[in-house]
Amino acid sequence: MATCWQALWAYRFYLIVFFLPIFLLPLPILVPSKEAYCAYTIILMALFWCTEALPLAVTALFPLFMFPMMGIMDASEIIQRLFPLGSECQFVGMSVAAPHMPRGAMGGRVFLPLSSVPACQVCIEYLSDSNVLFVGGLMVAIAVEHWNLHKRIALRALLIIGVRPALLILGFMMVTAFLSMWISNTATTAMMVPIAHAVLKQLHSAKASGDLEEGRENPTFELQEQSPQKEVTKPDNTEVLPVPPAPSGPRAHLTQEQIRFTQGMSLCVCYAASIGGIATLTGTTPNLVLQGQVNSLFPENGNMVNFASWFGFAFPTMVILLLLAWLWLQVLFLGFNFRKNFGFGEEAQEKKQAAFRVIQTEHKLLGPMTFAEKAVTVFFILLVLLWFTREPGFFPGWGNLAFPNAKGESTVSDGTVAIFIGTILFIMPSNFPGLTQNPENPGELKAPPALLSWKVVNKKMPWNILLLLGGGFALAKGSEESGLSKWLGSKLTPLESVPPPAISIILCLLVAVFTECTSNVATTTLFLPILASMAQAICLHPLYVMLPCTLASSLAFMLPVATPPNAIVFSFGDLKVSDMARAGFLLNIIGVLVIALAMNSWSSSIFSLDTFPSWAHSNSTTHCLHSPANSTTAAP
């Protein structure tokens, strides 16, 4: 009997994939409508994402074949989009006649491959502007990581901040959060954790000077993946994470106080990585999910969510949450002895100097900045400046002035800028002049490689996340086309009597709990279309509930499986699930309160949250009691 149960458990994912679609079949059979068909697809994908029976990226491909087969997005809608002036269409062989097009040698007929017709409208959601922004932003981030510029920034910042216990935690949190704003949370954590443990070894060592002389033998300094690494499966089942080797040697000699400090240092890195990612539009994937779904569901929103507006809203939120997280970790793991926490005393000074020299030695080993590092720094700063000044909203940006459309809006997007800078990185040489002898052909000169190569990008680009983003946008579009959004909106009208701040806080708590067990990308993908419909139904600004829930999806602090940074830190040792849960529970509550503060203060002026906008009113399924201009239902 035990063997039978073990066999079933071993085949659990196959059984889920086979039986779950059959178990849910009564929904589309008993309710034969587009709304039910779309709901069947969404529920099926949600359960697959929660159980991880299939990789998330594979599950995200379901709309490509389910929506056309169910008639949610069909060929006629595609032709109307391609030829909006009216067309006489013929398929199976054939051609699409467009009367409004000039007739040429083919008699005004444009041939479309039959295979591209049924899923064309769905496919376009898999390469929206948000996906392009994701690819372009990651190209620059990969270049920063490839030339080791992030490590130089981290070590230099730690030298400035110092290594007193309380300031050391703050320093690692600030550096990790800053790097996480621009490069992957996972890569940031994988780099910062070994540095943290190397410094801790010096702080805890009784033979500081002896350890310093053998500092290069410390395995935690091997940040360049020269030694074998263990692998930890990413919680969202999409890729395998390389984890730096954990420090070797027994820890029995450490006191309880030192172990708690080590735990606090480990948690401060993974928490700061998650917190820092919310500050920029490209910092973490849920932010791009929000932008893409807002643009898909409300195409007339006037590009309200862009890099500049997001930064103005999320950066202060990130700073406040980071400082409160630092105070909480300091109290939890260092106690209330602030004199000791800030490193006063002769013994503390001695250990502080030893740890400081370790960081200083590691920084010196990097040598002076190379031409490639300087070039990547220039292009990185240029990218950020172009993002901020493209269409800031409170003054005409260069996009409005140089590339306006008929409405005076910018025809270029943040994705356009990111791809432009990313393309330049493939053109710019990594050294100048940098000519060397070609080892394969002696006597022939060889040019230096470019700052970025496709081999490097292809290796480090998370293409699965690109599919996951596209699947989320396709779900949002399918909900709108099928009428499921309208149906949900009509069922949520009783919430109009609940104060908007209460709705926002309750939804944030719900999302924060959900994201502890599910990928934050999947969480936002599932919740945001429903929240948009709810906001329309109760005449509430859609961003008033979509923005806070997007930030709440990054509040994954309690469990190792909640997010890759947590998994990396947990695999490094010194932590129990109870330690992470105890620290993360209150931090989740703090995060929700900080988000509520942001939504009811500075974000109201940035996004005009105290009114029900006309671009949402035009799609609303209910009659609002307040006009778009005078409605103040979103005001707390």
UniProtKB/TrEMBL annotation:
Q: Where is the composition biased (Polar residues)?
A: 221-230
Kindly list the residue ranges recorded as spanning the membrane: 12-31, 38-65, 132-149, 161-183, 307-329, 371-390, 498-514, 526-545, 551-573, 585-603
**Which example biological process does GO assign this protein?**
cellular response to lithium ion
Alphabetically ordered keywords of this record: Ion transport, Membrane, Sodium, Sodium transport, Symport, Transmembrane, Transmembrane helix, Transport
Membrane topology term: Multi-pass membrane protein
UniProt entry tagged with the keyword Transmembrane: yes
Any one Gene Ontology MF annotation carried by this entry is:
alpha-ketoglutarate transmembrane transporter activity
Indicate where this protein resides in the cell. Answer: Membrane
Q: Which Pfam family is one of this chain's hits?
A: Na_sulph_symp
Q: What are the boundaries of the region Disordered?
A: 211-252
On whether Transmembrane helix is a keyword of this UniProt record, the answer is yes
PROSITE patterns from the UniProt entry: NA_SULFATE
Q: Which GO terms describe its cellular component?
A: apical plasma membrane
Matches recorded under PANTHER family: SOLUTE CARRIER FAMILY 13 MEMBER, SOLUTE CARRIER FAMILY 13 MEMBER 2
In the record, the note on similarity to other proteins reads:
Belongs to the SLC13A/DASS transporter (TC 2.A.47) family. NADC subfamily.
Q: Give the protein name, as stated in the record.
A: Solute carrier family 13 member 2
Q: Which organism is it from?
A: Microcebus murinus (Gray mouse lemur)
List the gene name.
SLC13A2
